[in-house]
Design a protein that fits this description.
The complex is a heterodimer of chains A (about 350) and B (about 800). Chain A has about 350 residues and is α+β, with helices and mostly antiparallel strands. Chain A contains eleven helices and nine strands. Chain A has two domains: about 1-95; about 115-355, Bira Bifunctional Protein, Domain 2 (BirA Bifunctional Protein, domain 2, 2-Layer Sandwich). Chain A is rod-shaped and about 130 Å long. Chain B has about 800 residues and is α+β, with helices and mostly antiparallel strands. Helices cover about 25% and strands about 25% of the residues of chain B. In chain B, a hairpin with a 5-residue loop joins strand 24 and strand 25. In chain B, helix 6 (about 235-240) crosses helix 7 (about 250-260) and helix 7 (about 250-260) packs antiparallel against helix 10 (about 375-390). The chains are: A alpha+beta (about 350), B alpha+beta (about 800). Chains A and B meet through helix 5, strand 1, strand 2, strand 4 and strand 5 of A and helix 8, helix 11, helix 13, helix 14 and strand 26 of B.
């Protein structure tokens, strides 16, 4: 009888413990339930401690029930704890939710100037073809800027009207422009001569840099601009090589869907000379106002290095042939990005600089 | 060069439509800048017949006409001309027509009478110079027809860009030859032989040329008894199509022949040239000191010593190749004409026309070079036309001063060489054919080396390479197979220095600065604005011909450009400005020819890093942001030994300016811009500005870095706050800490600077977080305490400080 009573008591204790655990609203209450039943001084613990005083034949049965009740209660407490933890997490997550449309935090990085971007892109294309990058001074001698490039002494480009001259402090008094034969280079072509003087073929170089001409600033002119020069001198270089190289360049620069054409032209330091056009990107080559109805946009001048230039630079014109080309970074940038006024390149307007 | 398609078709058969021909010309080196249709301007002008002519009721000089314009329509038109009668056929501009002079015809009331349209004169229609009366048309002109169409005025004109190496293309005959070469047609060559009569020209005219290098050939012809008047229609049309204005028959003929053959001509009134012993003594010489000439345009021109002039025995009568004199100009009274057909030195003509600002069709042709062997034919052609159109008799013979006749040039074209330059595989016959079509003589047309004779009208063909160019030009560059160079022994890429240079920009952009570029020019006033002085022995680079006084120098510093940039942005409402520029600066020194060119990198910071946002209000940028930017730059280049040292510069605010030292050398400066400088550049402060020489930065950049073992044992952090005098720098305290810390001190980070309560006036508290670590073991509290205690003792002694309580 006593055994019956004992096990009933245990089960009843277990039931009330489970009920209390399930009713616990927070972890602290749940912990209090655990301590009240299963702690050192807990009620279930007390019963279990009293097992020893039971007659030995009752002990196994009561012990079994007691363990059963304890396991049930523990699992109820664990289950409730998991429930409460999940609920607490849910509440925290709900509380921490943000408006994801609020702006992110960042320190904006600076941008590469559009002209520098264009120059880099062009340089990269030619580096990919095995070219190196050369440079030369912006304040140049008349010899490199004009004479060695086969420019006749009376050529209008040499006039004070078209070319900036700087004061020569050497004491020399040159014939050109009366007082000086030191100029702000009007193109990057003098680098050609400097490279040929200082290096032996094979020569494969591009030379980007600033140039200056006495143009009054207007939407299509600035007295300072950037060119990229190219020069190849090697055995067996042909006009076909020039054409293939520039066609490759135009495809890389403007996209494979644009067509190119190469037309004969005249430059003093190349022969044969040519200009390269790319089909108009606005009208696709049908003719529009942007391309003045022609369907084509001129982007660069080029040609085979004139034997006279080889002569000035000390290269054997029978053994070596070569080609050269030059293009304006501003023009290419303006064509590609539809920029109506070149002066914006030199204004440092942050709103412009951040656009590209 | 304007090319009338009608005229061209008379010289060479052209089957192509104008647009197709333009395309062929484009692809063979003669760029077509525009294709114009002319004659459209006078659409709306029809042929009318005067039906009645009555006095205007309210005006004595006006007529009231009724004009039949066909289709059963009769217009009432008030007319001021006097030269017509009933039954005359005249051009009538109907309402809505815009005439070449820009006048648009409207229905109007003239002195109270309605007028619907206008009866036109030649000048109003741009078809002649006659302004005094209506243009009376021949009887056969069909009433109601379009005037332009009936006159055959509709034409297409190609506007060609002729490159400076092709003077031969500055003529219709030359263009015809070029068109023949590129289309395979055959061009005719216009020429005439005048009928001659009377006394030989040499009886009346002598020619003396002082310096044949300035005037290789001078020919003079005499035409006696001409009648100067308006030109016939066809001549007017040709002159107009070429872009000139009709003047008189004699002048129009000289212009016509110039456009046709490329040889500029000048007609003198022979009666107004001085005679001596009955003879006109034409001379060609340089102008004397103080000489002057009234030119055709009525201006009295002072001549320079290198101006080439044409003279008679009284003095200068024309500027050679540029413009004739007013005194000897052909006029309505002219009876005898002396016709000049000559060749002048291009450079001499170019100098004179530039100096005087006189540019004409003639001077532009002389500047590019005319063929001395073409002078006589052009003279013959013009003399014959004068005799035909203006009457008169051509005196026998040409007075011709041509001491050194120019001969055709003999060149050799190696077929294999041409193919190896072009990358083509053309045979000798193909090349010969091309050259032959261009008017060159080719012997041995099938051989490996072609013997080519270059006529003197192609002065640009002097060398084999010039012939190679002609071959590819006419063969078509589009027909050359594109290839890539196959040469071995090349390797592309950037040098280490070029790559490092890129890294400077990358670091500055990562730090938030925009890449910019400004003018390389500087204003001499920038020296004063900045209070800048160049080092002893250096002077700025001066331009001889600046565009303006503000751009008279080359920049020696990037600072003004950056300050202007900040100001530009601030004035446009952009306050947060962070810029850098990398570019050349220039200085020179007495005795130097070319200046020194150095690459600098400079930057400016103004405002904040960005506008405040919903949870982030960035502080106003100051000195330490600039220093941070430099730190980032130094780190990206692997420069470890750098520091700032307080230094004063006139353009920077004292106490907020420093020199930048790398490896012990000054490489630049950094600081906040001084208030007067801000005012001078109309900028708002604070602005942090810095400028560095890139060369030493690149030299100091680290090479390959070697791996350092990562720490394996935990660190112990201890803070220390030291109170020191104001003049003790953070750098000094940190150095004292580092030297006292021994091997176990890994790092010292300044985390607080405090002044105020608890710290005596004139003193400050610097708080450092110190990190102790051993590479060999985990440090115990006792280990650290011992070291730390020693450190505190040494540091307080070294910097005169005390621990803050």
């Amino acid at each position: 009888m006593r055994q019956m009573r004992m096990t009933d008591e245990l089960r009843s204790l277990g039931r009330s413990g489970v009920a209390e655990a399930e009713a616990a609203d927070d972890l602290a209450t749940l912990d209090a339930v655990r301590v009240a039943y299963l702690g050192k001084k807990g009620s279930l613990t007390a019963v279990l401690r009293g097992l020893g005083s039971l007659p030995s034949e009752e002990r196994p049965e009561v012990g079994r029930v007691a363990n059963e009740v304890r396991a049930e209660l523990e699992s109820a407490i664990d289950a409730r704890r998991a429930e409460l933890a999940a609920k607490a997490l849910e509440e925290r997550v709900a509380a921490e939710a943000v408006d994801v449309t609020l702006p992110g935090r960042r320190r904006p990085a600076g941008h590469v100037h559009l002209i520098d971007q264009v120059v880099r892109e062009i340089v990269d294309i030619f580096v990919g073809l095995g070219y190196r990058v050369a440079s030369g001074p912006e304040v140049e001698l008349d010899w490199y800027n004009f004479t060695a490039l086969n420019t006749p002494p009376d050529h209008p480009a040499r006039s004070l009207q078209d070319t900036f001259y700087v004061k020569d402090l050497s004491g020399d008094r040159a014939a050109v422009a009366g007082e000086s034969d030191v100029v702000l280079r009007t193109h990057t072509s003098p680098v050609q001569v400097r490279v040929m003087e200082s290096a032996k073929p094979p020569i494969y170089i591009v030379a980007p840099g600033r140039c200056y001409r006495r143009d009054i600033p207007d939407p299509s002119h600035t007295p300072q601009f950037n060119q990229i020069e190219g020069l190849v001198v090697d055995e067996g270089i042909t006009f076909g090589d020039l054409k293939g190289t520039l066609e490759h360049f135009v495809r890389e620069m403007f996209g494979a869907d644009r067509r190119t054409r190469i037309r004969p032209h005249f430059f003093g330091f190349t022969e044969p000379s040519a200009e390269v056009d790319v089909s108009c990107g606005i009208c696709g080559g049908h003719g529009c106002r942007f391309c003045k109805g022609t369907g084509w946009l001129e982007i660069l001048g080029c040609g085979m290095v004139d034997p006279n230039v080889f002569g000035y630079a000390g290269v054997d014109a029978e053994r070596y042939t070569g080609f050269a080309f030059g293009m304006g970074a501003e023009r290419i940038a303006a064509l590609r990005h539809d920029i109506p006024d070149l002066r914006v390149f030199l204004e440092s307007d942050v709103r412009f600089l951040r656009q590209f | 060069m304007r090319v009338s398609m009608k005229w061209l078709r008379e010289l060479v058969p052209v089957d192509l439509a104008p647009a197709e021909l333009a395309d062929r010309l484009d692809m063979t080196g003669t760029a077509v800048e525009a294709i114009e249709t002319v004659g459209q301007e006078i659409e709306g002008v029809v042929i009318g017949r005067i039906v009645s002519k009555e006095r205007h009721p309210n005006a004595e000089k006006l007529w009231l006409t009724k004009v039949d314009v066909g289709g059963g329509e009769t217009l009432q038109i008030v007319c001021g001309a006097q030269n017509f009668k009933v039954g005359d056929k005249v051009p009538v501009a109907t309402v809505g027509t815009t005439l070449p002079n820009g006048v648009t015809i409207k229905k109007a009331k003239l002195r109270g009478v309605e007028s619907v349209g206008m009866n036109c004169s030649a000048i109003e229609l741009g078809v002649g110079s006659e302004a005094s009366g209506l243009l009376i048309l021949p009887d056969e002109a069909p009433v109601g027809a379009s005037f332009a169409e009936w006159r055959g005025m509709s034409d297409t004109v190609l506007d060609l860009e002729i490159t400076p190496n092709r003077p031969d293309c500055l003529s219709m005959a030359g263009i015809a030859r070029e068109v023949a070469a590129i289309t395979g047609a055959t061009a005719g060559k216009p020429s005439s032989t005048p009928e001659e009569g009377g006394a030989p020209a040499s009886d009346e005219v002598t020619v003396t040329v002082d310096d044949p290098s300035l005037c290789p050939r001078y020919t003079a012809r005499l035409i006696r008894g001409v009648k100067v008047g308006p030109s016939p229609d066809w001549l007017v049309q040709r002159v107009l199509a070429s872009g000139s204005r009709p003047v008189s028959n004699i002048v129009d003929i000289t212009n016509y022949v110039m456009f046709e053959l490329g040889q500029p001509l000048h007609a003198f009134d022979a009666g107004r040239l001085a005679r001596e012993g009955g003879k006109i003594a034409i001379g060609v010489r340089l102008a004397g000191e103080g000489e002057h000439l009234v030119t055709l345009d009525g201006k009295d021109r002072q001549l320079a010593a290198d101006t080439l002039v044409i003279t008679d025995s009284s003095g200068a009568v024309a500027l050679a190749g540029v413009m004739g004199g007013e005194d000897t100009e052909v006029s309505a009274e002219t009876v005898d004409v002396l016709l000049e057909s000559a060749c002048f030195d291009p450079a001499s003509v170019s100098r004179t026309s530039r100096r005087l600002g006189l540019f004409s069709e003639a001077s532009s042709r002389f500047e590019k070079g005319v063929d001395p062997n073409g002078c006589a034919a052009a003279s013959d052609r013009a003399a014959a036309l004068i005799a035909k159109i203006a009457g008169g008799e051509v005196a026998p013979g040409v007075v011709d001063e041509y001491p050194a006749p120019r001969s055709p040039l003999a060149l050799t074209l190696r077929v294999a060489r041409a193919n190896s330059v072009l990358g083509t595989d053309l045979g000798p016959h193909e090349m010969s054919d091309i050259l032959g079509r261009l008017g060159l003589g080719v012997a041995d047309a099938g051989g490996e080396a072609l013997a080519v004779e270059v006529p003197t009208f192609r002065p640009d063909l002097e060398r084999e390479i010039d012939l190679i160019e002609e071959v590819v030009r006419v063969h078509g560059m589009e027909n050359v197979t594109p290839t890539l160079p196959a040469g071995p022994g090349r390797a592309g890429g950037l040098t280490r220095e070029q790559r490092l240079r890129e890294r400077i920009g990358e670091a500055l952009r990562a730090a938030g600065l925009e890449d910019t570029m400004s003018y390389s020019f500087a204003d001499p006033a920038d020296f004063g604005r900045l209070g800048w002085e160049l080092p002893e022995g250096e002077v700025p680079v001066e331009l001889l011909n600046p565009m303006s006084e503000e751009q008279a120098l080359l920049r020696w510093t990037l600072a003004p450009g950056l300050l202007r940039a900040v100001s530009h942005n601030q004035r446009r409402g952009v306050d947060d400005v962070h810029l850098y520029e990398m570019g050349a600066v220039f200085v020179t020194a007495p005795g130097r020819k070319q200046p020194k060119e150095r690459t600098h990198v400079g930057g400016a910071l103004a405002g904040r890093w960005h506008r405040p946002t919903w949870d982030d209000e960035p502080p106003q940028l100051d000195f330490f942001d600039g220093k941070g930017v430099f730190g980032a730059l130094a780190e990206s280049l692997g420069i470890e030994r750098w520091k700032l040292r307080a230094a004063e510069m006139p353009w920077l605010q004292p106490g907020r300016s420093a020199e930048v030292l790398v490896g012990g050398d000054v490489v630049g400066w950094l600081g906040e811009v001084a208030a007067p400088v801000l005012d001078a550049y109309e900028a708002r402060g604070p602005i942090v500005l810095f400028e560095l020489q890139t060369e030493p930065l690149l030299r100091s950049a680290a090479g390959v870095r070697v791996f350092e073992e990562l720490p394996r044992f935990p660190a112990v952090e201890l803070d220390i706050a030291l109170v020191v005098d104001e003049d003790v720098t953070a750098e000094r305290v940190e150095q004292a800490i580092r030297s006292a810390g021994g091997k176990l001190l890994e790092g010292a980070r300044l985390f607080d600077v405090y002044r105020g309560q608890g710290v005596a006036a004139g003193r400050k508290s610097l708080a450092f977080a110190l990190t102790y670590r051993s590479p060999e073991r985990t440090l115990t509290d006792e280990d650290v305490a011992a070291v730390h205690e020693k450190l505190v003792r040494k540091v307080t002694a070294a910097v005169g400080g005390e621990l803050r309580g």
